[in-house]
Queue: 3 jobs
Job 1
Amino acid sequence: MVVGVAAVWLFLEHREGKLRLGLGAVVGLVVTLVLLFIAGKVHSDPRPFVQNPALKPLIAHAADNGFPSDHSAAAGLIAALVMWRKLWYGLGFGVVAVLVAAARVAAHVHHVQDVIAGLAIGAIGASVGALVAAWLLIRFGSRLRVGRLGRSVADES
């Protein structure tokens, strides 16, 4: 998914689109990490293999708090970020994000509630990131749109 979002960024036609996606990703990642931390402190959910020792995880994993799923949050963040820029690509990324979440459950390292919370946290982080990026471009657009040799995009056209 990371390679896919990098490809989407690379092939965006306009510099402003690249800037929006990049700023949205940075802000979205920070928001997602903060929400993951808070959610993990507010709610504890032992991993399935901890609750039921008969279950063997398919992926070696620490027996720590499983709530929320970090991997699902990252997948939800990427899918929602792409969806804000390119709807149809984002829907494809959304399918992959759900598959990542399902794989975490199938591997016995998370419960369904863990991955749903992770996907939601990632989507919230992406939405906040996209909105903050749009606001920053409106508020400070002329200063953020600096092109080659320090010229603004407006100077290049």
Note: The helical segments are 2-11, 15-42, 48-51, 70-85, 87-106, 112-144, 153-156.
Job 2
Amino acid sequence: MSSYLWIIDFTYSSRHHNGGLVRYFNYSQELISAGHSVTFAIVIERDREQSLEWMRSLRDKGVCSDFYELLVETPGWNRMASLLLPLSLERFAIRDFRRQAISAIGNLIRTSSPDVLIVSSVRFIYTAWECSQCIRIGDFCDSLALFYWRDLKLAISRGSFRAASHRLPDLLVWFFREWNVSRKYDANIFVSPVDKRIFDVMARSSARNLLLSNGVRFENSSSGVAKIPHRLIFSGVMDFAPNYDSALWFLEHVFPLVLAKIPDAVFVVAGGNPHPSLLAQVGPNVQVTGFVEDLAREIAISSLYVAPMKSGSGFKNKVAEAIASGTWVIGTPMAVEFLPAPLRELIPVHDDAGELASEICSFFDDPAPSLAKLRQLRRVLEDQFSWRARAEELHTKVQSIMTRSA
């Protein structure tokens, strides 16, 4: 049996809706059920007391073996430091933060004696590779260089050159960071083949880059609940730009075309921390829920899940969760790029607003063919994307890394 020390960022306000937290805690629960131990080192963004209380409840439920809080100040000029990477000056520029981070993580390693250190925290992933007392895995999850590249292209396509001018420095920062640090860990983890390919190119090697998708829980799928006719839903953390930007694009370009043919259609935006621009859209046909405890049920009672993603990267938990809940999915190509090709081909996707609206209206006119495909999708997801299967794959890959490093 192996012991894992896992460094994560934690945001209490989006706990159930945050794809990263869903990933960490499901992996942890399955690893523990298989006899391993998983200790989290958490970096709390805000709401410290509530965060600590929630982590205690997870420990009591057996979701984690234990947890510690990491207290290290964020470097004050991180962006400029990253731009100094090509000159090999970044380590000097953030030397105080590096010293604190390495000391704090080193103390945790000495306390918990893990076999494996997994680093998912954005704050620590660019320094923790220097702690060499055990196997080190960088859980990059998805590529922020890809994220900002897409954001830059989107801003240019919309003619927003001011926004594009802000995106370019971010793109350079994350490119230099990921290019440099992805070569330092014993292995790197990615949740989507698209993100892995970006790192393969940057590092000029794919040997240490591992694809490890997220999973789906089917027991919380709220099966058997009655669908609300003509109810469309989109979900996620709604102060995250790719989510609220996508929802706004759908509201501006697609939903009016749907309403022209289906006047009683309702579009529900479900998720914590809704952006003010979304709250301004609330009306008879538009609902913005904010945080809901049982997001799976909100999706399950909807007739259709729309995933109008126009930017972002990584594994789209929202799409997999919709399929698991028994709700048909229609979206843009970016929404399904994380899936294997046979599954992508079953889901209708369109980048054009008119074609997307037409697909939605066609589904409501005759849902039977789509629901037959949905049953097929659910069977494949349940077989290939269970959290237990993902945890077993993670541990198998970790064992391979340990053998290789011995």
Note: The CA atoms of residues 238 and 248 lie 11 Å apart.
Job 3
Amino acid sequence: MDKYVFDNKDPLELKEMLQPRDLVLPQLKNNLMKAQQQMKKNADRKRMDIEFNKGDMVLVKLQPYRQNSVALRRNQKLRMRYFGPFPIIKKVGPIAYKLLPPYHVKTHHVFHYS
């Protein structure tokens, strides 16, 4: 407990106490950087550069809580994975597109692909 009490210590003693921490910090930062690079490498493996045009038909994958506005299913276990196809009205951003879903759908009409 008294190891972390710094009130009565002079600066040299504090420096000696913090020296092991200063040796470990660069190693921890290096390990974190390696883990981030590995996760990015695995995520980039599944990514594709796809370009859609106006009028193309696309399928949409929705979160479970949003699916009820598109198609009401009695058994959620047997719910659909993808909905559509929906036509693309226009390109909103580099990876975002505005779709034309049926009138009863309560979700937002702009989607991005991933």
Note: The chain has two domains: 2-46, 57-112.
